[in-house]
Amino acid sequence: MINISDTLESLIEEFSSLPSIGRKTASRLAMFIVKQPNEKAERLAKALLDVKKNIKFCKTCCNITDNEECNVCKSDKRSKKTICVVEEPQDVYAIEKTNEFKGLYHILHGRISPLEGIGPDDLKIKELLLRLDESNNARTEELILALNPTVEGETTILYLTRLIRPLGIKITRIARGIPIGTDLEVADEVTLAKAIEGRVTV
């Protein structure tokens, strides 16, 4: 097959390199850009460059931000006594959409995965320990481990628990269980077992 345009093909290849974007979707996106006025394409290009130029990590929680400290860490309305540990910045957005959590966050930027060559030193664990040091911060009373329910997530939870338990801080983890609207008969064995294990008093 002969390329209609090398320039267009280059754009399709770039879109195809993005997560969850196949070549068919990349082609649609590229053709959409072609049909847009120059001003819109320029705004998109500027937004991409601005993200790379201006985005940095919060000095406190390691979340992405435009400033030295993110809006969550700067807020006077957030409880300083509870820290929720997550794997990636997008996990913060997911939790924030629930409007249930009123504490602070700490983003590890990954999880321990020996098969991928990712160890504890590759994560933001040292930064977490620094936050938990009483001499550097107000006393943290609870650490919530909200990591993904994968083998790597469980490994990271186990590592953090062993590391932090001697500090005398309460350590909890988010519940695993049956999603609302799901029948028990269609739930897999692991999810069902975790739901029974994480049962609460009613």
Keywords:
single chain; 202 residues; alpha/beta; Dna Topoisomerase Vi A Subunit, Chain: A, domain 2; 2 domains; four-stranded parallel sheet; globular
Give a quick precis of the structure.
With 202 residues, the chain is an alpha/beta fold. It has helices at 6-16, 23-35, 38-54, 71-74, 89-96, 125-132, 151-164, 189-197, and strands spanning 56-57, 64-65, 82-86, 104-107, 142-145, 170-173.
Task: Please tell me about this protein's structure.
It is a single chain. The protein has helices at residues 6-16, 23-35, 38-54, 71-74, 89-96, 125-132, 151-164, 189-197, and strands spanning 56-57, 64-65, 82-86, 104-107, 142-145, 170-173. With 202 residues, the protein is an alpha/beta fold. A 4-stranded parallel beta sheet has the order 4-3-5-6. A hairpin with a 6-residue loop joins strand 1 and strand 2 (64-65). Helix 1 packs across helix 2 (23-35). The radius of gyration is 22 Å and the shape is globular. The relative contact order is 0.08.
